Predict the structure.
Amino acid sequence: MMPNLHPAASLASQCTATRRVRGFTLIELMISLTLGLLVLAGISTILVNTGKANREQMALARMQENGRFALSRISADLRMAGAQYCSSFGSDTGSQTQGHKLRPFRVLTDATLPWGVPSRPSYVPVPPAGEAGLLSPRFFIQGHECTTIANCSPVLNVLGGALPVPPVTGTAVNRRAAGADVLTVRYLAGNGVPLTVTHDAGATPLTIGSVATAAPLNFVGGDLALVTDCVNAEVFSANAAGTSIVPTGNSGANNNLRGYALSMDPRVFNFTKDLWTVTYFLRIRANADGGNNISTLVRQQNGNTQSISDGVERMEFLYGVRSVDALGAVTNHFLTATQVQAGTSASGAALTCLPQPKGVGAPELGCLWRQVESIDVSLLLNTVTDVAANPAQPFSFSAATPPLVEATPPATLPSGLPRGNMYRKEFRTRVNVRSFTY
């Protein structure tokens, strides 16, 4: 039998049980929710700031990598400007004191040369039928100052009619970005195929060490051939079959090539494919991440265009030219493409071109291009994405005239695109032209 509890003890026991099952009070809940919200807000702020900082760092890292890669790719081509196989002072070049390191190519064919290279009928004066015309080294570099010229329409050959022509400017996709220079260089690529039999002067076939229609020559109908050693270089029309290159169909039926001894390591090239015409310009493309269109650096090689780096907003070139006056005094100048083309210094004074390469003909338009020894490259890149706190992030661009130092980007950029909320950085380098004429 259970003992009887005192009434007071029974009441206390009931109160204790009631307290054990009681929940939080409203005040306790409010305090808990407030503390939780404060903690959540702090965590959210940290996550947001961390995400923003991460996006900024990724955008800046991408901009840095884009700038470095753009400079390295441009530099590789500029160093090759004018390169020829076994480049030396040849018989058609003139004396070494005249400074013509690159020999002109002897052009036998009247066929149109590829990718804007001036063809024989356009030389001044036009060579008589049956005589070779000489392609001047002047055409291995051609710049266009499109930074401040709104209607700049560069072609790859100042004589006109060249293909391909960079697109017209605009802000639509695939248009050329305004406010950026254009530069074309040409050089002989590849190693060619060596002759295996000494070639006596005349119209006899050239015998090479591999099948002409196979790699690396890959001749097809209409391709032009180039045979060269350390003295001569001749461009001509030919038929290719087996291991034979047969000169045929050249100007005035002059299919006679010069003699090529094996001791000089003569080689045959597919001139149509192995002479590279490389042009750099900025092109507008759609932003893969959404938002406004962006400008990107492109490299056009023999008509094939490849995107190199996104976010290249401005591009300017200055050309280091060495000039020799009538008394033999040497002066160095850094000029825009317009000044090089006009043959004037930055102050407007006339600069003297070196004597013409022997046999080239009349004085060339833009002959100072033969005397470019180095090229200054200046690029202004942005982060592509809007990661900056505001659109007025200052930047510097020393290549501008006058130089921009801690400047604020205008609402509309020189390309015509909006400025966005982006960081910007200048990338610069100086490239020595390895085939410079001195």
